[in-house]
Amino acid sequence: MEKEAYVEALKNTLTEIRNVSPGINSSFIFTEDGAVIAGDPEVANMSINTTLSSFQKIAEKAELIGGLRSFSVDGAQGRVYISHINNLYLVTATSKNIDENILRSVTQVIIPTVLKLLETINPVPLKSTQSQQLVVEAFSGFFTGDTVQIDPKLLSEWSGLFNGQNINEVEIKAPDGETTRCKVKEITDTNLQGKGIIRIPDRVCKALEVNKGESVTIKPLEP
Predict the structure, then answer these.
(1) What pLDDT does residue 185 have?
(2) CB-CB contact of 147 with 183 (8 Å)
(3) Contact 161/64 with Cβ under 8 angstroms?
(4) So what's the pLDDT on residue 186?
(5) Is the dihedral of CA 197, 200, 204, 206 positive or negative?
(6) Is the distance from CB of 4 to CB of 219 less than 8 angstroms?
(7) Helix (H) or strand (E) holding 204
(8) Where in the chain is the domain with CATH 3.30.450.30?
(9) What local confidence, expressed as pLDDT, does residue 64 receive?
(10) Are 16 and 27 in contact (CB under 8 A)?
(11) First to last CA, the chain
(12) For residue 21, how far is the Cα from the chain centroid?
């Protein structure tokens, strides 16, 4: 199974879960380094940046007490539940009155089973998957040009896929299918690193018709 097919299978699974599970509003899966790899169509409506940032702070503290397996946050409109599955994390946004049996079935049975099945068919190291879903962080300035910025760790991983050559250009695909090519460089702000973010100049965001907080698919172009 190709890496993109692996990710697509996860996206389809999350979409079907939302369609047939009362109380589940949206969900997405991200890696330990904060890269969002799959989500259902409603994931753009979630506050991914806030979720990942909050999770990172909690996870750092959890390391001191032996690691973090799962936790939930209650909000005014519902709940957000994060669970650790193998080397991935599943984020599920639910209504406040969701049936706990449905939630446990999704987080403890369905998703783990799908992941195990996919890896049985053909193991795919998600951290080296070429295509990634990243969250848009728009920015502006006199010298921004059309260059986007992504996490240096992801650039390094992609470089490894091309025999150590530097990745200078990427393809960005918006949720509606619109694509564009941009030059790329590292995110230098340490506060934004490791959070699954792509910084995109305002004019590129307008061309793609994407807004801050939405997810786009980004793929390295061979040097």
Answers:
(1) 92
(2) yes
(3) no
(4) 92
(5) positive
(6) no
(7) helix 202-208
(8) 3-126
(9) 40
(10) no
(11) 25
(12) 22
User: Which residues is 36 bridged to in the sheet?
Assistant: 30, 133
Q: Which of 105, 62, 71, 104 is nearest to 89 (CA)?
A: 71
Alpha-carbon span 215 to 173, nearest angstrom: 9
Q: Which two tokens stand for residue 26?
A: 């949206």
Tokens 């460089």 correspond to 185
Tell me the residue type at 39: G
List every span in the chain annotated with CATH 2.40.40.20: 130-220
Residue 71's alpha-carbon distances to 59, 96, 160, in angstroms, are 10, 15, 34
Nearest to 175 by CA among 136, 149, 128: 136
Tell me the two tokens of residue 185. 């460089």
pTM: 0.52
Dihedral through CA 218, CA 125, CA 29, CA 105, nearest 10? 150
Choosing among 2.60.260.20, 3.90.180.10, 2.60.40.350, 2.40.40.20, the CATH entry for 130-220 is: 2.40.40.20
State residue 215 phi and psi, 5-degree precision: -100, 140
Q: Per this entry, what is the length of the chain?
A: 223
Residues 172-196, buried b or exposed e (16+ Cβ, 10 A)?
Answer: bbbbeeeebebebeebeeeebbbbb
Low-confidence ranges of the chain (pLDDT < 50): 1, 62-66, 127-128
Residue 48 is predicted with a pLDDT of 60
Asked: is 3-126 a CATH 3.30.450.30 domain? The reply is yes
